[in-house]
Automatic annotation (TrEMBL):
GO terms for molecular function: glycosyltransferase activity. The lineage of its organism: Bacteria, Pseudomonadati, Pseudomonadota, Alphaproteobacteria, Acetobacterales. Keywords: Cell membrane, Glycosyltransferase, Membrane, Transferase, Transmembrane, Transmembrane helix. This is Glycosyltransferase. Residues 7-170 form the Glycosyltransferase 2-like domain. Belongs to the glycosyltransferase 2 family. GtrB subfamily. It is a multi-pass membrane protein. Its main location: membrane. It is found in: Cell membrane. The chain crosses the membrane at residues 232-253, 265-290. It comes from Swingsia samuiensis. The keyword Flavoprotein does not apply.
Amino acid sequence: MRPSKLSLIAPFYNEGSGVDYFFEKISPVLHDIQNIEWEIVCVDDGSSDDTLERLIAYSQKDTSVKVIEFSRNFGKEAAMTAGLDVSTGEAVIIIDADLQDPPELIQQMIQEWRNGAEVVLGRRIDRSSDSAAKRLTASWFYKAHNKLAKPKIPENVGDFRLMSREVVDALKELPERQRFMKGLYAWVGFKTVTLDYVRANRNVGETKFSGFALWNFALEGFTSFSTTPIRVWTYIGFAIAVISLVYGAFIFLRTLMYGNHIPGYASIFFAVTFLGSIQIISIGMLGEYVGRIYMETKHRPIYIIRKKYN
Ligand code: UDP
Ligand code: MG
């Protein structure tokens, strides 16, 4: 039987201290899999440390190690996109360079793929390696996103996954520049199998996603896959109009019956500030979408490659 080819894609951003660990852990796992050949696509996402030099050194020793050097930091979503674009395997696995997701699962993923799965997801059953705040906000995000957007994205599933060539080709058809990969993966569909695992702590280096970066990421997710946040203002507007009409009628009748007593500074002040803020929020929401349309219409490339090695 002809061996099948696996492409392993790993985005690296300032992971210099973890490069040796990465190859030390990955190599035996790949060698243990029966009847397979592979390439390891390492995308250097504009690291400012020695990540690139270290990756190039590995690529010189081993032709299965391909390195893509970005011209600057384009973000993890762009790095994964580049990896998918150059990958040639019949199966593709994306894994974080810090190996927080267990490479041992790769063997099982391949098994599921050989049994007919087109997508094999890794699901974290225990997120104790993330901070309490990150866990809580992540769970809010999934709940809100899945209420608003279609298709739903599975909870606690990261980018660690196997995809067959058909799935990767489908993903490459999606032209958007602003890439919320979790949503795009869900959007293309395909036969999916989920494997549970426990996520380890980061071995070296530190997380690149915290606070505001995660907030922007969540906003990207909502606005890329749902128009509810922008359409909801129509209904809020109607609701406020109805309330105002009822209140207006009440004032009118009260004036007819009891005459015009003390003028209502308080209610006017409230109405002006409340409506004012509602309008500004809705314009802001509009702006989120217009901004995204603006970015998309420029048709800029998702990433720029300075050089490829191997
Ligand atoms: N990463 C990247 N570009 C970035 C930020 C992160 O390629 O701008 C990579 C990073 O090197 C790692 C993966 O994305 O391989 C996940 O990052 P991290 O471990 O910081 O995220 P966390 O595991 O904390 O969610
Ligand atoms: Mg990590």
